[in-house]
């Protein structure tokens, strides 16, 4: 099978002997590779964020070209819903399609076991609802998202909470992990950021490995007022990582992790 983005690689990356790849180039490469797994007739979970946007664009392009047919998308945010509608991708929801064939989405962090941090874009609840019922969940990232452990970037691990007494929820979360945390606010630094679901988001910042992720998850979700957290534990079936030297595909096969690597010369000629 020809690589879905071989033209993109040949015309935009392979044109020079020493291509300088931007982070957005890497995101697009990973997203295009993931879309190769989309087949006509599938119900597809459409992720949210700068990397997932490329996958949605590519699916729409293949639909226009007639290379894909009878695709039904389930958007993981209002923003992705609006993007899909503008591109003519047919949409539905989990009420009509409780099982999703394939979801494609980005991630903010990926650990060695393919556990994720997601939700820095604010869509963690809907993303987890869709991706937890997907037969296959492909994560697309650039290599900067690879971390030795969850929270290893020192950046936010989001927790969606109800607005009522959010400060109380923040204090309990911080006490739970001995970390720092703050209420997410809009870009101007003023009003509290409100998710698509009408909730607030508390961003936690870990200074060390928090240990057993399932135990951490259970502890968070036991707190009244907590809606969901941004740790996606054991949900990803594959992670496609685009780096400056090529693409790495990490896939769970039973309890094993199979890793395949491809240079950009390999990719320009197809697999």
Walkthrough of the structure:
There is one protein chain. By secondary structure, this protein is α/β, with parallel strands linked by helices. It is built from eight helices and 14 strands. The chain has helices at residues 6-13, 23-35, 50-64, 78-87, 124-131, 166-177, 213-221, 264-269; strands at residues 43-46, 72-75, 100-105, 109-110, 116-117, 134-142, 157-161, 180-183, 200-205, 226-229, 231-232, 238-243, 246-253, 256-262. The strands form three sheets. Strands 2-1-3-6-12-13-14 form a seven-stranded mixed β-sheet. Strands 8-9-7-10 form a four-stranded antiparallel β-sheet, covered by helices on one side. Strands 4-5-11 form a three-stranded antiparallel β-sheet, with no helix packed on it. Strand 12 and strand 13 form a beta hairpin. Helix 2 (23-35) crosses helix 3. The longest helix is centred in the first third of the chain and has 15 residues, at 50-64. The N and C termini lie close together (7 Å).
